Amino acid sequence: xxxxxxxxxxxxPEKAPLSESKVVLESAQINSNxxxxxxxxxxxxxxxxxxxxAHNKKEALLEELRSIKADELPFRRRELTKxxxxxxxxxxxxxxxxxxxxxEKDEELPVWAQDVEKWPxxxxxxxxxxxxxxxxxxxxxxxxxxxxxxxxWIVHSWFSPYATYFPILAISAPFEGCAKSSLGELICxxxxxxxxxxxxxxSVLFRMCDKYSPTVVIDELDxxxxxxxxxxxxxxxxxxxxxxxxxxRTTGENQEGKRDIEFFSVTGPKCIIGxxxxxxxxxxxxxxxxxxxxxxxxxxxxxxxxxFALNKERPEILELLLEIKRKIRRAVEDYHVAFQRxxxxxxxxxxxxxxxxxxxxxxxxxxxxxxxxDIKRFAKNNQxxxxxxxxxxxQSSVSTPIWKERFxxxxxxxxxxxKLPSEDQELLLQIIKVFKQLHVREISIxxxxxxLKRRDRMLYExxxxxxVLGRKLTALGLWxxxxxxxxxxxxxxxxxxxxTVCCLGDVMRVVDGVLDKTEF
Length: 520
Fold this sequence. Notes:
The protein is α/β, with parallel strands linked by helices. It has four domains: 4-104, no CATH class; 125-314, Rossmann fold (3-Layer(aba) Sandwich), CATH 3.40.50.300; 328-416, no CATH class; 422-519, Arc Repressor Mutant, subunit A (Orthogonal Bundle). It has 24 helices and ten strands. Strands 2-3-6-1-7 form a five-stranded parallel β-sheet. It has a three-stranded antiparallel β-sheet with strand order 8-10-9. Strand 9 (491-494) and strand 10 form a beta hairpin.
């Protein structure tokens, strides 16, 4: 006759059951017994080792789950279900329970690393994108395209446990005073566990990324990225865009006088800020970046925006930022499965959206996120559940992928841009605005210099002359024919002087594919 303790012990198979019906039956029994284990049973197991007790096995499972990061769970799901003899659905329940146990220890975390409470009501993703975009344009003079890209990147930082690639958001400007840091601070306040820093030491950066999985916002990068002491920062940026990126370090000597090897994960979303970043960064780093180009605002434009640095501590602003974060948290909970399903559907190489190689890797997660928002709106308009909408969306004739098509268009524009120095982009933009302000189709180089100095005396007063401007325009390819062959500059007699003339058509030909046309 079997021992009474063995009769009461919960069956816990060493291997995963083979048949599906057996899995469901035994998993239900395990789940029920784990939650209703009596005090008498606990006493009966008192003399046993932890592995002989169902209660202790549950504790062991929860302890192991607490040590696993969210981005590692998909890769260990099969191992854990087999090890503990439970189904994937039950593992997800234990995973949620382990997360709840971790939240009880949030007081020990820094404020920026603590989770926020989710929004109590269902969130429309499209409305969330528009709210973030509106908030960004409230504080920063930025193009519609760049504001939409920043909004999607912010939401994507919260979906990072389910993403496949983490493109670097690079905020660049031709010179100081373009609100780069203000935009970086705002993004940091809205991202998942945003951490804003300057010149971080590599040992701190590795350990912080591994412990907290933050969204790191690094400012003033152009000041130190080329220093030999920061060479490792380039490697961390390059490798941190994909999963599995580890930095290996040796620890201090242990009691035996030996050094151990320690691995630090640097995977996760990162934002970098600096002047003329396309010229500062290595080509390998630039190929992993989504560039957001800012410019210096005019006085009239400055009067129409709020200063984030001066207003970020106001209660109403803090309340707005917290509301956005809570809504994103709720969106992650509601739509992460739909987001993953769209990513899987995009695994077909034929769905390139006109993007290939690393370009496709950079943008595919954002496209899937925008597509998820469109599908949710489609389900809402047709009174369907989200799963039903996912199944019929691609075949439906009434689907309207507004944000998806918009984001694909922005991706195509960004990737087709000629990587001119930011200062040259700013110069071309100012020249076009001069043509627009004067309502002319051509202007002399001499008059163009005068107008540019009037528009921005600080930048052009001592740095721009007719000769310098002429050389810049020649280097940019202004005086070339339709075939790209050099041609002689047009010269006309104006007020008794024979002057070189700059034509709007030639400027627009150079600008084509370089600047965002919504700027002018």
